């Protein structure tokens, strides 16, 4: 084949590929390759066409910008075309741009100085948001039409959809706006909005998006605008289209005028003089890129003076007065070389992608998380695949998509090992137990677990690293590497073995000398009397963080009680839900864990054990217990009615016959209660919970209830105005749990008033009487002082 023939074949291939990618990107909002890869293909085609101008055709993707409108939407002709921007990747590209601008404006700019530098041009600097371009048409200040860019001349009518974007004004504010004003800008999704959307899509079994741009595009171009309305879209304006009327004569002047009329503009908008200041801006934003609440793929520089913009004009479909200075791409293609499995602290066996190293957003990436096997299945990823890797913000690199048309014939499925790669124990799939309405449904979980527990080196290492960490047992001087060495050399098999270590054993460890060994021994010794909360946290119970550990310690105040507590009893604790309660209960029911805890109890002297926390002791009622049994058709109100009818006695309730029940409840719940207690297991469970409440001294009939011991006992509080973070009901509940009475009106006897925005006469009265007033933030802080969180 001749050179020209080879070029022609390659050109044809590139054109058909690019057409396909264009279609996927612009019409389907489902690109199959990252932008950076698209750019490379596009540039390859451009270069080939430059070498072989005879092969250029009018329908080549290089001759066309953007894409067709999706036919389902109406068409909108753009009076003023919506153009794209030229790109600068390196500093020199930007300097070349500035030089071309100055050359183009030679007649306007003051003559050069002695060094031939010439005067510098003023540029507006804005982030280049990664979303999709939108045109908004305002007539007499009213939003009358919204459109996508489409191919730049014709877009899609998305008027209904843009009206659902919260920060797009439907009406311009103030005065002085032109009678016809077309505002242009980017519709985008913040990182947080994107994460939220994907999480809820995942939960509802819907389609997730690879990145915020796709999510924004997919959400805005919905045929059903009620879906768009639910998506966290935002708008940022960066320019104008057609105008009938007066506007300022600089770009920044116009943006500021638009801002005054209610248009959102970028907070990062700045002016820069000359290429150097532009580059400063680029570097500054580049450093803050990961911390911005939204994704950007570069910055845009525009000649600020509009007369000069007109003078410079356009080349092909790009303005000569503006340029996009791009950042290193946050998505790249690479090959999945292997999937390895890592074992974590709780034995979870998680897949990790080993990649052909690739630079993503300026950092070399060789590994990426695959989360769990559900994620592997969702991605449909196989070993050998070409995958899109995304590294955005400070998040760990992720595999977001497989490029299916590049799958090699010998691609291999990802399989979970049957045996733990570290200890060889059996790997089993966890079960997902959902509990609701008193019923348990069991399904297969996404997580696989090595059953080896602390016999598994990986789990033992992680468990000990957690055990000694600062917020847990706080044993200073024992780094991760030393823990690994201790485990690898068989010197410790359980956290309790730490307390048997000798000076001779430690001094042999890498990096240890005489002094550091003595220090470590002293640190271990010093940790022998942990507070209960620290000890509980140090155990590494799944889903039990520092806060929950504190709650457990403060409320139950003894390891013995915590070990025995039934899940339902645990749910009396503030902020402990049923799932966590079951995790805690299962942890302590496990015989292996029991052995480890016994060993620890022998070497430790756990502090802070004693009387049950007062607020906890007072938190039970028969109605609450009935509620916790989750009997179908019996809600909190039904539970209260039953408790009252049967004199707060579970015994009487259990002895009730259908007629007794029917006197208080309607037929359906009465049947439900009868059927529920007809099952021996349910009766036993109710009795066991009650017995434990008695045993712990927190039964509603217990003598030991120390209500007067509550911190706010005897106080009267009033809530007024609207509370924004904590609802009034919850605030009331929390205050009552601390022993306070919550009243509806302010008097001299009122201890304290919590006043939110909109508070009126009650606040005035409080001020008049000199009653203490807290705003919501102060109130939450006060609650925190009593160990009550906002959740
Ligand atoms: S100005 C003639 N400013 O980038 C100038 N564009 O490749 C037209 N974009 O389609 C665009 N942020 O979707 C401009 N601050 C900004 C921008 C921006 C993002 C997008 C826009 C446009 C593409 C240009």
TrEMBL record:
<dbReference type="GO" id="GO:0006281">
    <property type="term" value="P:DNA repair"/>
</dbReference>
<feature type="binding site">
    <location>
        <position position="126"/>
    </location>
    <ligand>
        <name>NAD(+)</name>
    </ligand>
</feature>
<feature type="binding site">
    <location>
        <position position="149"/>
    </location>
    <ligand>
        <name>NAD(+)</name>
    </ligand>
</feature>
<dbReference type="InterPro" id="IPR013840">
    <property type="entry name" value="DNAligase_N"/>
</dbReference>
<feature type="binding site">
    <location>
        <begin position="84"/>
        <end position="85"/>
    </location>
    <ligand>
        <name>NAD(+)</name>
    </ligand>
</feature>
<dbReference type="Pfam" id="PF01653">
    <property type="entry name" value="DNA_ligase_aden"/>
</dbReference>
<keyword id="KW-0464">Manganese</keyword>
<feature type="binding site">
    <location>
        <position position="456"/>
    </location>
    <ligand>
        <name>Zn(2+)</name>
    </ligand>
</feature>
<dbReference type="InterPro" id="IPR018239">
    <property type="entry name" value="DNA_ligase_AS"/>
</dbReference>
<dbReference type="Pfam" id="PF14520">
    <property type="entry name" value="HHH_5"/>
</dbReference>
<dbReference type="Pfam" id="PF12826">
    <property type="entry name" value="HHH_2"/>
</dbReference>
<dbReference type="InterPro" id="IPR001679">
    <property type="entry name" value="DNA_ligase"/>
</dbReference>
<dbReference type="InterPro" id="IPR003583">
    <property type="entry name" value="Hlx-hairpin-Hlx_DNA-bd_motif"/>
</dbReference>
<feature type="binding site">
    <location>
        <position position="186"/>
    </location>
    <ligand>
        <name>NAD(+)</name>
    </ligand>
</feature>
<dbReference type="GO" id="GO:0046872">
    <property type="term" value="F:metal ion binding"/>
</dbReference>
<dbReference type="Pfam" id="PF00533">
    <property type="entry name" value="BRCT"/>
</dbReference>
<feature type="domain" description="BRCT">
    <location>
        <begin position="707"/>
        <end position="784"/>
    </location>
</feature>
<feature type="binding site">
    <location>
        <begin position="35"/>
        <end position="39"/>
    </location>
    <ligand>
        <name>NAD(+)</name>
    </ligand>
</feature>
<feature type="binding site">
    <location>
        <position position="302"/>
    </location>
    <ligand>
        <name>NAD(+)</name>
    </ligand>
</feature>
<keyword id="KW-0460">Magnesium</keyword>
<keyword id="KW-0234">DNA repair</keyword>
<keyword id="KW-0235">DNA replication</keyword>
<dbReference type="GO" id="GO:0006260">
    <property type="term" value="P:DNA replication"/>
</dbReference>
<feature type="active site" description="N6-AMP-lysine intermediate">
    <location>
        <position position="128"/>
    </location>
</feature>
<keyword id="KW-0520">NAD</keyword>
<dbReference type="Pfam" id="PF03120">
    <property type="entry name" value="OB_DNA_ligase"/>
</dbReference>
<feature type="binding site">
    <location>
        <position position="420"/>
    </location>
    <ligand>
        <name>Zn(2+)</name>
    </ligand>
</feature>
<dbReference type="InterPro" id="IPR012340">
    <property type="entry name" value="NA-bd_OB-fold"/>
</dbReference>
<dbReference type="InterPro" id="IPR033136">
    <property type="entry name" value="DNA_ligase_CS"/>
</dbReference>
<dbReference type="GO" id="GO:0003677">
    <property type="term" value="F:DNA binding"/>
</dbReference>
<feature type="binding site">
    <location>
        <position position="423"/>
    </location>
    <ligand>
        <name>Zn(2+)</name>
    </ligand>
</feature>
<dbReference type="InterPro" id="IPR013839">
    <property type="entry name" value="DNAligase_adenylation"/>
</dbReference>
<comment type="similarity">
    <text>Belongs to the NAD-dependent DNA ligase family. LigA subfamily.</text>
</comment>
<comment type="function">
    <text>DNA ligase that catalyzes the formation of phosphodiester linkages between 5'-phosphoryl and 3'-hydroxyl groups in double-stranded DNA using NAD as a coenzyme and as the energy source for the reaction. It is essential for DNA replication and repair of damaged DNA.</text>
</comment>
<keyword id="KW-0479">Metal-binding</keyword>
<keyword id="KW-0436">Ligase</keyword>
<protein>
    <recommendedName>
        <fullName>DNA ligase</fullName>
        <ecNumber>6.5.1.2</ecNumber>
    </recommendedName>
</protein>
<keyword id="KW-0862">Zinc</keyword>
<dbReference type="InterPro" id="IPR041663">
    <property type="entry name" value="DisA/LigA_HHH"/>
</dbReference>
<dbReference type="GO" id="GO:0005829">
    <property type="term" value="C:cytosol"/>
</dbReference>
<keyword id="KW-0227">DNA damage</keyword>
<dbReference type="InterPro" id="IPR001357">
    <property type="entry name" value="BRCT_dom"/>
</dbReference>
């Amino acid at each position: 084949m001749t050179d020209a023939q080879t070029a022609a074949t390659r050109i044809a291939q590139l054109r058909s590929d690019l057409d396909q990618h264009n279609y996927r990107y612009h019409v389907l909002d489902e690109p199959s390759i990252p932008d950076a890869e698209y750019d490379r293909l596009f540039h390859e085609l451009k270069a080939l066409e430059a070498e072989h101008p005879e092969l250029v055709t009018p329908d080549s993707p290089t001759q066309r910008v953007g894409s067709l409108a999706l036919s389902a939407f109406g068409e909108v002709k753009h009076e003023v075309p919506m153009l794209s921007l030229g790109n600068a990747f390196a500093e020199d590209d930007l300097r070349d741009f500035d030089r071309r601008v100055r050359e183009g404006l030679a007649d306007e700019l003051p003559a050069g100085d002695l060094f031939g530098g010439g005067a510098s041009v003023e540029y507006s600097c804005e982030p280049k948001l990664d979303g999709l371009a939108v045109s908004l048409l305002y007539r007499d200040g009213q939003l009358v039409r919204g459109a996508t860019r489409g191919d730049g001349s014709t877009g899609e009518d998305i008027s209904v959809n843009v009206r659902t974007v919260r920060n797009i004004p439907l009406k311009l504010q103030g005065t002085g706006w032109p009678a016809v004003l077309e505002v242009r800008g980017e519709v985008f999704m913040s990182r947080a909005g994107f994460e939220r959307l994907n999480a809820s899509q995942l939960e509802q079994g819907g389609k997730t998006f690879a990145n915020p741009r796709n999510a924004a595009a997919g959400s805005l171009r919905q045929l059903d605008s009620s879906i768009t309305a639910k998506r966290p879209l935002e708008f940022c304006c960066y320019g104008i289209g057609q105008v009938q009327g007066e506007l300022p004569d600089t770009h920044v002047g116009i943006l500021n005028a638009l801002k005054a009329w209610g248009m959102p503009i970028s907070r990062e908008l700045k002016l820069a003089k000359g290429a150097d200041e532009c580059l400063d801006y680029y570097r500054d934003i580049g450093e803050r890129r990961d911390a911005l609440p939204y994704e950007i793929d570069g910055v845009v520089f525009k000649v600020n003076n509009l007369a000069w913009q007109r003078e410079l004009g356009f080349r092909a479909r790009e303005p000569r007065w503006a340029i996009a200075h791009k950042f290193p791409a946050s998505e790249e293609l690479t090959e999945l070389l292997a999937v390895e499995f890592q074992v974590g602290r709780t034995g979870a066996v998680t897949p990790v992608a080993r990649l052909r190293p690739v630079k993503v957003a300026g950092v070399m990436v060789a590994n990426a998380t695959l989360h769990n096997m559900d994620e592997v299945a969702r991605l449909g990823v196989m070993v050998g695949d070409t995958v899109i890797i995304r590294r955005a913000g400070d998040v760990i690199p992720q595999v977001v998509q497989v490029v299916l048309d590049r799958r090699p014939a010998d691609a291999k499925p990802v399989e979970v090992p049957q045996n733990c790669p570290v200890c060889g124990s059996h790997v089993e799939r966890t079960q997902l137990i959902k509990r609701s309405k008193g019923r348990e449904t069991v399904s297969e979980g996404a997580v696989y677990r090595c059953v080896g527990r602390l016999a598994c080196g990986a789990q033992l290492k992680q468990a000990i690293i957690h055990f000694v960490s600062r917020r847990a047992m706080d044993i200073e001087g024992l780094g991760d590497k030393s823990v690994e060495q201790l485990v690898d050399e068989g010197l410790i098999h359980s956290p309790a073995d730490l307390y048997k270590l000798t000076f001779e054993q430690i001094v042999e460890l890498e990096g240890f000398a005489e002094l550091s060994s003595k220090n470590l021994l002293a640190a271990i010794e010093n940790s022998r009397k942990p507070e209960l909360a620290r000890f509980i946290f140090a155990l590494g119970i799944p889903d039990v963080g520092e806060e929950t550990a504190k709650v457990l310690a403060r409320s139950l105040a003894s390891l013995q009680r915590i070990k025995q507590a039934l899940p339902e009893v645990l749910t009396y604790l503030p902020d402990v839900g049923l799932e966590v309660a079951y995790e805690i209960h299962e942890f302590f029911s496990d015989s292996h864990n029991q052995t480890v805890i016994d060993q620890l109890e022998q070497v430790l002297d756990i502090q802070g054990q004693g009387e049950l926390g007062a607020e906890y002791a007072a938190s039970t009622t028969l109605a609450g217990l009935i509620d916790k049994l989750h009997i179908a058709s019996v809600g909190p109100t039904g539970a209260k009615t039953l408790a009252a009818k049967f004199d707060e006695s579970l015994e009487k309730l259990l002895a009730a016959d259908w007629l007794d029940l029917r006197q208080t409840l309607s037929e359906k719940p009465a049947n439900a209660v009868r059927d529920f207690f007809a099952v021996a297991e349910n009766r036993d469970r109710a009795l066991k919970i009650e017995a434990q409440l008695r045993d712990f001294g927190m039964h509603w009939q217990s003598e030991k209830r120390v209500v007067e011991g509550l911190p706010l006992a005897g106080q009267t509080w009033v809530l007024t105005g609207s509370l924004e973070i904590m609802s009034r009901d919850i605030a009331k509940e929390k205050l009552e749990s601390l022993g306070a009475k919550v009243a509806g009106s302010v008097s001299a006897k009122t201890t304290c008033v919590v006043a939110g925005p909109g508070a009126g006469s009650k606040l005035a009265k409080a001020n008049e009487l000199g009653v203490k007033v807290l705003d919501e933030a102060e109130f939450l802080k006060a609650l925190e002082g009593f160990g009550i969180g906002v959740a």
